[in-house]
Design goal:
The chain is mainly alpha-helical. The chain has two domains: 60 residues; 104 residues, minor pseudopilin epsh fold (3-Layer(bab) Sandwich), CATH 3.55.40. Helix content is 47%, strand content 11%. It is built from six helices and three strands. It has a three-stranded antiparallel β-sheet. α1 runs antiparallel to α2 and α3 packs across α4. The structure holds fe (ii) ion.
């Protein structure tokens, strides 16, 4: 079964150019391509006379490609629709207030983590067991993911995410631009789904 690349309904953004978005989405599609390439290659190797370590290394590589694809979907989807702040009165807003002090303090914390050296992601995740949001750093795409925690926000901190528009020394301007274009409603929807409060879908009647 093939992993299918998504398309994103993005409006022009402030501080993130159309060219930057274009090259970044091409890169996302490359991760999708390699997810499928590894799947296909592992399938072919089932019957091939190949040393086991070849399959082992492909399996190790799979999480890099798969998370690379999926994290970019979290990233681009959160810009769809119109920019909107996270509503402090929402359930997500209340949870961020409990976890960080306020929605503004959440953003300030993300900015602090964004100073982390290296390539990777900042992810904000909701853990239903502890009922709080954590902000953590993921190296590459797969090193440091928190098992069982649901992604609410994903901030790409690879240099390819901003270097069409900003030099590395100006990466905080990129992070500010991400927040300026963020649709907080989508973050709230992710939170509601993770928290078991997703809007219910009307059941299909069974005749
Ligand atoms: Fe990226």
């Amino acid at each position: 079964m093939a992993y299918t690349a998504k398309t994103f309904a993005l409006n022009p953004m402030n501080g993130i150019s159309a060219r930057q978005v274009e090259v970044h989405i091409k890169l996302y599609e490359g991760y999708v391509k390699h997810v499928n390439l590894i799947r296909d290659t592992l399938e072919k190797l089932k019957t091939a006379d190949t040393p086991a370590y070849v399959r082992d290394e492909l399996r190790r590589r799979y999480a890099f490609e798969w998370n690379g694809a999926r994290l970019h979907e979290y990233y681009f989807e959160q810009f769809e629709g119109a920019p909107a702040p996270i509503d402090p009165e929402s359930t997500l807003g209340a949870t961020l207030a409990r976890s960080f002090g306020s929605t503004d303090a959440f953003k300030a914390h993300v900015l602090e983590v964004a100073a982390t050296r290296g390539i990777g992601w900042i992810i904000a995740t909701f853990d239903p067991r502890e009922e709080h949001v954590q902000v953590s750093w993921v190296s590459d795409h797969e090193i440091g993911q928190l098992a069982g925690a649901h992604i609410i926000f994903a901030l790409d901190m690879w240099e390819h995410a901003f270097m069409v528009d900003y030099v590395p020394a100006d990466k905080m301007r990129y992070v500010e631009a991400v927040f300026a274009n963020l649709n907080g409603t989508i973050l709230s929807q992710r939170f509601s789904a993770a928290n078991g409060n997703a809007p219910s879908v009307a059941p299909t009647s069974i005749m």
